[in-house]
UniProtKB/TrEMBL annotation:
Region (Disordered): 165-193, 330-375
Top-level class of the enzyme under EC nomenclature: ligase
Keywords on record: Aminoacyl-tRNA synthetase, ATP-binding, Ligase, Nucleotide-binding, Protein biosynthesis
Protein name (record): methionine--tRNA ligase
One GO cellular component term noted in the UniProt record for this chain: cytosol
Bias (Basic residues) ranges: 351-361
Length: 435
C-alpha cells in the first residue's frame, strides 16, 4: 500500500515538471474536469486512496470526476508475458513496420470496456484491410481522386459549374487563380442539400448524435465503430448515386452536388477520427487543403464551392494476410519447463509428448536437430519465419492439388530446416577461452 501513497503524487508532480502553470490544472476544481483512464485492478487506489490523500492536505485540489476502466486484453488466447516474449509490446509494434495509426485503431476498436477481449494477428490484419483500407481509406480516396480528375481539384458548385471533363493546362491555371480569390455566391449555407439527399443527411446526423453521446459517456470503442459506420454510409452514398464520368456527362448538376456533399463528409470524418487517429486526421486535412475544425452537432456544408483541394493520398496500405504466420511465430513465445502461465502453440503439445514416448523420434520424420536455449540472434529468427512462411506455401499447394510445384517447394522447406539446424549446431558449440 505504501507504493500507492507515493504513486498518485506523481501525477501533479509530472505536470509541474512540464509546466509552471500546473496549479491551473490540479488546483482549479471549478474550471477543470478530471478524467482518468486505467485498468480495472487500479480502481480502488484512484477512487478511494488518491482522493483521500488530497482531501487530507486541507487544500483545494481538482478531484476525480470521471473514471473509465477496462478489463484485460489477451494475446492469442493467452496472457501477455514480456519475460516469455508472449505478446506485442511497443518495440515489437515498431518492428512490424505497421503504422502507429493502425495499432491505435485496432486497440481502441477492441478496447475491453465491458469484458476481456482478444488480440489475434488474423483479426488485426482483417480490421486493417477491411475497415481502415476498404472502408475509410476507399471513401476518402475515391471522392478526392474524382474531384482531382473531373473538377480541376475545385469543390464544385451544383448551381453554376459549367465544365465537364478533364481541364487543359491553361484552364486549370485559370481556375486556380479564380478559386484563390473568390468563393461561390450560390451556396453559402451549411444546410444546402438537395431533396434527394435528405435521407442521407438524416442518417449522418443520427450517427453523429450517437457518436457524441458515446464520447461523452466514455464509450470509446463504440464511438469509433460509429465513425466507421459514417464512412460506410458515405461509400453507400457514392454507390447509390453511381458516381462516375457518365453521371457527370448525363447530370452535371447532380454529380456536382454529390461531390460537394461527399467532400464535406470527408471533412467531418477528419474531426471524428482525430481522437483515435490524429495523424490520419492530418493527412485527410492535407488532401482537403483545409484547416482543423471543431465538431458540430449536425452535418453541413463547411467546404464551400470554389475551394481548391489537394491531391489524393492513400491513407492506408494493405497488409499481406500471410504476415500473420510470421508475427504469430515471432511473438508467440516459448514455454519454459514447468511454466503453467504460457500455453504452447496449438497442436505442438501432443506431438511433443508423442515424440518423447518414442525416445525423441517422430515416425516418418527426420530428427529435429539440436535444441537451442538462450536469446535468438536475428539470423535465427529470420530463418524460423521463412520456415513458417514456406510451410504455409506447401500446405496451400497441397490443398490446391498443384502437385507439379509441391516437390520443389518441399525441397526449399527442407533446405531451410537444414540451414536452421546447422545454425543452431554452430551456435551451440562451446567457445574455447584462450588463456
Amino acid at each position: 500500500m505504501y507504493v500507492w501513497f507515493d504513486a498518485p503524487i506523481g501525477y501533479p508532480s509530472i505536470t509541474a515538471n512540464y509546466s509552471n502553470d500546473w496549479e491551473k490544472w490540479w488546483k482549479n476544481p471549478k474550471e477543470v474536469t478530471l478524467y482518468q483512464f486505467m485498468g480495472k485492478d487500479n480502481v480502488p487506489f484512484h477512487t478511494i486512496l488518491f482522493p483521500a490523500y488530497l482531501m487530507g492536505t486541507g487544500q483545494e485540489w481538482t478531484m476525480l470526476n470521471h473514471i473509465s476502466t477496462t478489463e484485460y486484453l489477451q494475446y492469442e488466447n493467452v496472457k501477455f508475458s514480456k519475460s516469455n516474449n508472449v505478446g506485442v509490446f511497443g518495440q515489437n509494434a515498431r518492428e512490424t513496420q505497421v503504422p502507429s495509426e493502425v495499432w491505435r485503431y485496432f486497440l481502441i476498436s477492441t478496447r475491453p470496456e465491458t469484458n476481456d477481449s482478444q488480440f489475434t494477428w488474423t483479426d488485426f490484419i482483417s480490421k486493417a484491410n477491411s475497415e481502415l483500407l476498404n472502408n475509410l481509406g476507399n471513401f476518402v480516396n475515391r471522392i478526392v481522386k474524382f474531384c482531382n480528375a473531373r473538377y480541376h481539384s475545385i469543390v464544385p458548385d451544383p448551381l453554376s459549374w459549367p465544365v465537364v471533363g478533364p481541364p487543359t493546362q491553361s484552364e486549370s491555371a485559370s481556375k486556380e487563380d479564380e478559386s484563390s480569390s473568390t468563393t461561390s455566391t450560390q451556396i453559402t449555407s451549411r444546410e444546402s442539400f438537395d431533396e434527394e439527399d435528405q435521407a442521407f443527411v438524416g442518417d449522418i446526423n443520427g450517427l453523429l448524435t450517437q457518436y457524441i453521446e458515446s464520447m461523452e459517456s466514455l464509450k470509446l470503442r463504440q464511438a469509433l465503430s460509429i465513425v466507421m459506420a459514417i464512412s460506410a454510409r458515405g461509400n453507400q452514398y457514392l454507390q447509390e448515386n453511381k458516381i462516375d464520368y457518365s453521371l457527370l456527362l448525363a447530370s452535371p448538376r447532380r454529380c456536382a452536388q454529390i461531390v460537394l456533399v461527399s467532400l464535406n463528409l470527408v471533412y467531418l470524418l477528419s474531426v471524428l477520427v482525430y481522437p483515435s487517429m490524429p495523424s490520419t486526421s492530418e493527412l485527410i486535412l492535407k488532401q482537403l487543403n483545409a484547416p482543423k475544425r471543431r465538431l458540430s452537432r449536425t452535418f453541413g456544408i463547411d467546404l464551400l464551392p470554389g475551394h481548391t483541394i489537394g491531391d489524393a493520398i492513400y491513407l492506408f496500405r494493405k497488409i499481406d494476410p500471410d504476415r500473420a504466420a510470421f508475427w504469430r511465430k515471432q511473438y508467440g513465445g516459448s514455454k519454459p519447463s514447468g511454466d503453467p502461465g504460457v500455453v504452447e502453440p496449438a497442436g505442438e503439445s501432443k506431438k511433443a509428448k508423442k515424440k518423447a514416448a518414442h525416445g525423441g523420434k517422430s515416425k516418418g520424420t527426420t530428427p529435429a536437430g539440436p535444441l537451442f536455449s538462450g536469446p535468438k540472434p536475428p539470423e535465427m529468427v529470420e530463418i524460423e519465419l521463412a520456415i513458417v512462411a514456406q510451410g504455409e506455401r506447401v500446405r496451400q499447394l497441397k490443398a490446391g492439388s498443384m502437385e507439379g510445384e509441391v516437390g520443389m517447394e518441399v525441397s526449399k522447406l527442407l533446405g531451410l530446416k537444414k540451414d536452421l539446424a546447422s545454425l543452431i549446431e554452430q551456435l551451440s558449440k562451446p567457445i574455447l577461452k584462450v588463456r
